[in-house]
């Protein structure tokens, strides 16, 4: 109880009421049932408001609910009180004052500061020579704002004293994400020391992996006993696989596997099937070397030469961050930086670009009052709330104010110094969007392109009613596949959100310079001399665009004309052009020695981009289509005929396809996963019985029962009246309850969340009534699914933002974002926001273009 002793030895706050012990006890009696002592699993927020970036350092301090332990700034605490009825809050305030100067003008000698007792996630320099800090805590009772200054150890009821002490001494809810503790949470596998590895001659290539059982190419795991490469399970964000790695363990008993794509000099993601958790393998380098993966060599190469005196004179780090130029800081709305949480620059760069787009500004910040008012009881776990909070933090200018001279502060603020906040810390946002994701939840560096797609997926899944700002990125790709033997073709369409451009190294315009530089560099390394100035390959953008449009070979192509595998080529074109085009330069690859490599190239990216010539044209005169015949499918045994993988069904249903079509797709592809079933849907979606119920031989009853359980819509899809009554008893309209239950397959908990996240349906009650009175509308919408929404238009674009990467691979290095605002380029380098003098547009990794109206 040391902390409480320090706390309750403090004098009372200057603004506190003086009350007798009996008065305080009487004041708290009505609220005692709502005051809780934090338990081990409770998250106690003391550093950041759930709706804003207010903290104890803010002018109004921070209010911590003594029941939910959520924190709120002065602007938002009333909303929480009205919504929940919770009345007792702990008010936390950290005062910052300039230190008293001695006679000679210097600060007085340091002494132990006993006035600091809050354990906060802030950047305060508590040992500063210029400022001193003092923490203040008090209880506030709403709605009358009665204040009880702390300490009051002799006057407060024992329960309240214990609860206050527990809140004040609680650790940060993000502490477990800090790099040191994150690593220490993983146990060493008991199988690592004596792991059996088969001498079967298996060697793993550095790229081109696919699952040995289903040909999937994502979420792949290498079994460390026999070298099998198999897919993992599906994740919440629709990435993953079909669980073949786990099936292999059950068949063979080989316990450890490492995730391909996560191997770095510092380790990799290792999972123990026997122990059913992620683990550490202290002999990982040895185990990987058994299959031809040399981690130790990777360490030396990835870190580069360690001597400072042989580094290149001009590196991409200096060019991209515009080192050596005097950059003018920018302040105000839209010029707020994001503090680096330790390898979080990939997130910061993407979010700066995202919230420079008007559609995202309107969808979240423009709807701030409605989103905040209808947020769930725990807004820290709501995507739309946290997106709105981040957007407002970046765009309001509230957290990006120019510094004020200390003399002016002394005149205006007298004794108290109010330092301006420089940027915001996206801890709460990162914790939520990375939750349950195996990569983004770690503290390692990540790929900005992968995070962009992850974010788009979250926006899609959490869209507010019919409004979906990610529509601006969505476009259709027409894929033309031609059988090389019969010359027949097939046209299909798929959805995409970014354009991936290959780096056409063979088209470099300065090959002679590159050869000379490489010879000089090797000679300098051998003789331990300073390296020459870097010479980058200069690649014409037109060559990259040409490489994108060229045909590529199709692996394992099955020709329906030949009823057999054959050689095939594929070309891709735009079936629609998005409103905002995101272009990724494919700079990263693996060498034959498994060393991550990056093409250090300069590409003359255009400010104005015209891709109208890449518009798809469809089936051309003289072309003959491949027969519409599916590859032979292995039908499941009768014993497993009714065992449909419902997780794959729901994955497909969430994409907007009819439920019964999804069930048929999963069944007729032998439960091989959502990706394979999706391909079946694309081929069969024009068939007249596409959305009709699945009829399985000998299992017709089971099929119809399953359709009922998983929410087949129709005349009989009336939610159970008892569940409707429960929701209406909470004060919601009957129409809202019915619509929410229909949208969530009659799940009460999900229906309540649906109501809070779809406030527009309360306003649009006429539509709900019409839907209730006309159940056939559901059948119509099921039978005729809408295709993906796209905002097609001209293929003329203008560059307005780009993200650059510095380092040898996406698993290391640093990201910086440049955005064109008000006619000039601005560099966003974590919390620093400055006017750009020399934007390195030729060294970017991701480029953001907006359509030019025709």
Describe the structure in brief.
Deubiquitinating enzyme that removes conjugated ubiquitin from specific proteins to regulate different cellular processes. With 854 residues, this protein is α+β, with helices and mostly antiparallel strands.
Walk me through the structure:
The longest helix has 16 residues, at about 510-525. The strands form seven sheets. Strands 13, 19, 23, 24, 25, 26, 27 and 28 form an eight-stranded mixed β-sheet that branches. Strands 2-1-3-4-5 form a five-stranded antiparallel β-sheet, with no helix packed on it. By secondary structure, the chain is of the alpha+beta class. The N terminus is likely disordered. A hairpin with a 4-residue loop joins strand 16 and strand 17 (about 565).
Summary tags:
854 residues, alpha+beta, eight-stranded mixed beta sheet, five-stranded antiparallel beta sheet, 28 helices, 28 strands, 17% strand, globular, metal-binding
Q: Kindly state the number of beta strands.
A: 28
Shape descriptor = globular
Helix content: 25-40%
User: Span from first to last CA?
Assistant: 70 Å
| Structural class by helix and strand composition | alpha+beta
């Amino acid at each position: 109880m040391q902390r409480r002793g320090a706390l309750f030895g403090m004098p009372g706050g200057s603004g506190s009421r003086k009350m007798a012990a009996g008065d305080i006890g009487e004041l708290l009696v009505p609220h005692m049932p709502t005051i809780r002592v934090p338990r081990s699993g409770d998250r106690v927020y003391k550093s950041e408001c759930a709706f804003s970036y207010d903290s104890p350092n803010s002018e109004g301090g921070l209010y911590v609910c003594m029941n939910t332990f959520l924190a709120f700034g002065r602007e938002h605490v009333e909303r929480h009180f009205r919504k929940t009825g919770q009345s007792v809050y702990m008010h936390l305030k950290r005062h910052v004052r300039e230190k008293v100067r001695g006679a000679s003008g210097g600060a007085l000698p340091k002494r132990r500061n006993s006035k600091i007792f809050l354990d906060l996630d802030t950047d305060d320099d508590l040992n500063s020579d210029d400022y001193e800090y003092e923490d203040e805590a008090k209880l506030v009772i709403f709605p009358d704002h009665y204040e009880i200054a702390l300490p009051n150890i002799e006057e407060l009821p024992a329960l309240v004293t214990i609860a206050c002490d527990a809140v004040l001494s609680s650790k940060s809810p993000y502490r477990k994400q800090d790099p040191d503790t994150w690593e220490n949470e993983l146990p060493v596998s008991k199988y690592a020391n004596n792991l059996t590895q088969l001498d079967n001659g298996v060697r793993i290539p550095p790229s081109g992996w696919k699952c040995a059982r289903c040909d999937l190419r994502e979420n792949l795991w290498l079994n460390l006993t026999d070298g099998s490469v198999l897919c993992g399970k599906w994740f919440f964000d629709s990435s993953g696989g079909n669980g073949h790695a786990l099936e292999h363990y059950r068949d063979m008993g080989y316990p450890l596997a490492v995730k391909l794509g996560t191997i770095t000099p510092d380790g990799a993601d290792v999972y123990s099937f026997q122990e059913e958790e992620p683990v550490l393998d202290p002999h990982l380098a040895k185990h990987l070397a058994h299959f031809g993966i040399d981690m130790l060599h990777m360490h030396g190469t990835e870190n580069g030469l360690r001597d400072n005196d042989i580094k290149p004179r001009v590196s991409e780090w200096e060019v991209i961050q515009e080192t050596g130029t005097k950059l003018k800081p920018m302040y105000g709305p839209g010029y707020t930086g994001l503090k680096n949480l330790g390898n979080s620059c990939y997130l910061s760069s993407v979010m700066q670009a995202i919230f420079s787009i008007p559609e995202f500004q309107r969808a979240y910040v423009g709807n701030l009052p409605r989103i905040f008012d209808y947020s769930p009881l725990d807004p820290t776990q709501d995507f739309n709330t946290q997106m709105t909070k981040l957007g407002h933090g970046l765009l309001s200018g509230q957290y990006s104010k120019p510094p004020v001279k200390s003399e002016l502060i002394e005149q205006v603020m007298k004794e108290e110094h109010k330092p301006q906040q420089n940027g915001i810390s996206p801890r709460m946002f990162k914790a939520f969007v990375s939750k349950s994701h195996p990569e983004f939840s770690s503290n390692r560096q990540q790929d900005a392109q992968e995070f962009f797609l992850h974010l788009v997926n979250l926006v899609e899944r959490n869209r507010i009613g019919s409004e979906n700002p990610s529509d601006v990125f969505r476009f259709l790709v027409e894929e033309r596949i031609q059988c090389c033997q019969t010359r027949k073709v097939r046209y299909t369409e798929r959805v995409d959100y970014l354009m991936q451009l290959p780096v056409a190294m063979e088209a470099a315009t300065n090959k002679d310079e590159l050869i000379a530089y490489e010879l000089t560099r090797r000679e300098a390394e051998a003789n331990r001399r300073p390296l020459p100035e870097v010479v980058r390959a200069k690649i014409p953008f037109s060559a990259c665009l040409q490489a994108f449009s060229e045909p590529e070979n199709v692996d394992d192509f099955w020709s329906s004309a030949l009823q057999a595998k054959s050689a095939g080529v594929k070309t891709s074109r735009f079936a629609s052009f998005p409103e905002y085009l995101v272009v990724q330069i494919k700079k990263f690859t693996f060498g034959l020695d498994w060393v991550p490599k990056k093409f250090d190239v300069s590409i003359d990216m255009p400010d104005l981009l015209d891709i109208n010539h890449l518009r798809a044209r469809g089936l051309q005169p003289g072309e003959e289509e491949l027969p519409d015949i599916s590859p032979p499918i292995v039908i499941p045994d009768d014993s497993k005929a009714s065992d449909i993988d419902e997780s794959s069904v729901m994955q497909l249903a969430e994409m907007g396809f009819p439920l019964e079509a999804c069930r048929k797709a999963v069944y007729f592809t032998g439960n091989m996963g959502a990706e394979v079933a999706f391909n079946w849907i694309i081929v069969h979606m024009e068939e007249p019985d596409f959305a009709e119920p699945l009829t399985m031989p000998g299992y017709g009853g089971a099929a119809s029962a399953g359709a009922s359980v998983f929410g087949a819509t129709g005349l009989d899809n009336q939610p159970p009246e008892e569940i409707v009554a429960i929701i209406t008893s909470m004060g919601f309209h009957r129409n809202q309850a019915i619509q929410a239950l229909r949208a969530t397959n009659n799940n009460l908990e999900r229906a309540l969340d649906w109501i809070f996240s779809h406030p527009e349906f309360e306003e649009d009650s006429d539509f709900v009534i019409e839907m209730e009175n006309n159940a056939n509308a559901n059948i119509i919408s099921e039978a005729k699914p809408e295709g993906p929404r796209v905002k097609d238009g001209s293929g003329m674009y203008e560059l307005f933002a780009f993200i650059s990467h510095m380092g040898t691979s996406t698993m290391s290095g640093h990201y910086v974002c440049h955005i064109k605002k008000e006619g000039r380029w601005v560099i966003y380098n974590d919390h620093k926001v400055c006017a750009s003098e020399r934007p390195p547009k030729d060294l970017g990794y991701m480029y953001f273009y907006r359509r030019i109206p025709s």
